[in-house]
Amino acid sequence: MTASFPARLRNNSPTSTNTPPVAKPGTTVKTGASVADAKKRRVPMGRYGDAREVAYVAAFLASELSSYVTGALITVDGGWTVYGGWERLLRQIQEAARQLYQ
């Protein structure tokens, strides 16, 4: 049985990549440490992705090489999501705030 709707749904989901907004990050008030550097330390691959790496995934999804891929979301984040991503970071921020205001 074939689907009557011919569209293939595919998406890539990049997180932080080494682009100009990340290359010139803000700093935290308390320590002066770079916010981007603090996040980069939490990426299991130890670095931000390069825009080319995200583009490679997009090119794959747009090509016939992905002809049997549908309904997929490919996360391009160096392991950030598996590591705990935003949820883990928010817990760490909450704990730091509790210690700061005790």
The CATH first-level class comes to Alpha Beta
The neighbouring-strand order within the major sheet is 1-2
Helix share bin: 40-55%
Q: Kindly state the number of beta strands.
A: 2
- Total number of domains: 1
Return the structural class: mainly alpha
- Please count the helical segments: 5
Order of helices and strands: EHHHEHH
- N-C termini distance: 63 Å
CATH topological fold name:
Rossmann fold
The mean pLDDT is: 75
Write down the Rg.
18 Å
Q: What is the strand content?
A: 5-15%
Specify the CATH architecture.
Answer: 3-Layer(aba) Sandwich
Largest sheet: 2 strands, parallel
CA-based shape: elongated
Q: Regions with pLDDT < 50 over 5+ consecutive residues?
A: none
Structural features, described:
By secondary structure, the protein is mainly alpha-helical. It is 41% helix and 10% strand. The chain contains five helices and two strands; from the N terminus they run E-H-H-H-E-H-H. The chain has helices at residues 20-23, 35-40, 51-62, 80-83, 85-100, and strands spanning 10-14, 72-76. It has a two-stranded parallel ribbon. The radius of gyration is 18 Å and the shape is elongated. The mean pLDDT is 75.
Write a compact overview of the structure shown.
This protein has 102 residues and is mainly alpha-helical.
Features of the shown structure:
102 residues; mainly alpha; Rossmann fold
Write the layout of secondary structure elements.
Blueprint: E1 10-14, H1 20-23, H2 35-40, H3 51-62, E2 72-76, H4 80-83, H5 85-100
Parallel strand pairs: 1-2
